[in-house]
Amino acid sequence: MSTDSSISLDTMEASTKANILAEALPYIRRFSGVTMVIKYGGNAMTDPQLKESFAKDVVLLKLVGIHPVIVHGGGPQINDLLQKIGKDNQFIQGMRVTDNETMNIVEMVLGGCVNKEITSLLNQHGGHAVGITGRDNHFIKARKLYVSTPENARQDIGQVGEVESIDTALIEEMVEHGYIPVVAPVGVGEQGEAFNINADVVAGKLAESLQAEKLIMLTNTIGVLDKNQQLLSRLTPADINALIADGTLQNGMLPKINATLQAAMHGVHNTHIIDGRVPHALLLEIFTDKGVGTMILGQNEQA
Ligand SMILES: NC(=[NH2+])NCCC[C@H](N)C(=O)O
To answer: Are strands 234-235 and 294-297 parallel, antiparallel or unpaired?
Structure first.
């Protein structure tokens, strides 16, 4: 039998839970039928417990009528395999020098191991996930990305690509039929060859092409921080530009920020940078008023 004080504690806990559910309701209604592109990476992709909570969240999103589209990375997994087979990893300006042999490994790891692991994880939790790369139906067209050297010359670093165009028909078809697309960031060149593309860039461009409601990046940071390391919860693209100009946003964060900024400027309603190390970060961001990370308002959203 429970005592009086435990009854009141139970009641409090129940009412907190009820409040959370009630807070979620307007968002469930508002987001029913919309597409959200989710960039999956970092700890959320390697920690067993975080993997579970991610999979449960994605399946729940689908169950309440949201259409999640997953884009994943896999840099550390590629490094591991290259190291195992004794192939050197060389980076220029943060980009992997990718000869044909390396590209084969990249494609094996991204389109094979990592993609199928995520797909299977979602399916195990009751989703209907299907894994693809940009070479499927040639839906992500890529061109070679050159690095500019300090002397302003163009340097060829192999099969590293940038997005030329995305044909969304395949993804839309999958979504319509209830599937959760899981996309590995590999694109296809003019000759049918594979290109390795940065996953943040693919997620941003895909969100843009799909005119998604949201682009959500799961990262290993709590969000965008100000000079005093405090979380900035809501920002406009203009705020972001100011933070870049005054040096608050540092190098490491810039590629991610640029990908979100581009999406925000090209029709994606809101973009979010959230902490993938927090269990259920996706649900907390989407279904609560305050969220857990940084929300960047799209160009036409109200500040
Ligand atoms: N970091 C934030 N301020 N998040 C607010 C999220 C609000 C709402 N749940 C949405 O997804 O649109």
So the answer is: parallel
**CA atoms within a 13 Å half-sphere pointing along the CA-CB vector of 55:** 21
Q: What CA–CA distance (Å, rounded) separates 231 from 209?
A: 29
> Distance, CA 76 to ligand 1 centroid (Å)?
30
Pocket perturbation via mutation, ligand 1, pick of 272, 280, 302 by most ligand atoms within 8 A of CB: 272
Confidence of residue 207 (pLDDT cuts 50, 70, 90): very high
Can you tell me which residue has the tokens 């997953």? 70
pLDDT in tens, 153-206: 899 999 999 999 999 999 999 999 999 999 999 999 999 999 999 999 999 999
What are the tens digits of pLDDT across the range 19-72?
888 999 999 999 999 999 999 998 999 999 999 999 999 999 999 999 999 999
Atom 12, ligand 1: residue with shortest CA distance: 286
The answer to whether residues 129 and 67 touch, using CB atoms and an 8 Å cutoff, is no
DSSP label of 73: -
Helix, strand, coil abundance in the chain, percent, nearest 5: 45, 25, 30
ipTM of this predicted complex? 0.98
- Return the SS3 of 223: coil
Question: Taking a C-beta distance cutoff of 8 angstroms, is the pair 296, 240 a contact?
Answer: yes
pLDDT number for residue 24 = 95
The three-point CA angle 28-222-211 to 5° equals 45
Q: Name the token pair of 231.
A: 């979380």
Q: Is the model's pTM score more than 0.90?
A: yes
Domains along the chain with CATH numbers: 30-297 (3.40.1160.10)
Question: Residue 32 C-alpha to ligand 1 middle, in angstroms?
Answer: 16
Task: Round to whole Å and give the CA distance between 25 and 287.
Answer: 8
Phi then psi for residue 134, to 5 deg, are -65, -10
| 133 Rama class: left (phi>0) / alpha (psi -120 to 50) / beta | beta
Binding site membership of 270 for ligand 1 (Cβ less than 6 Å): yes
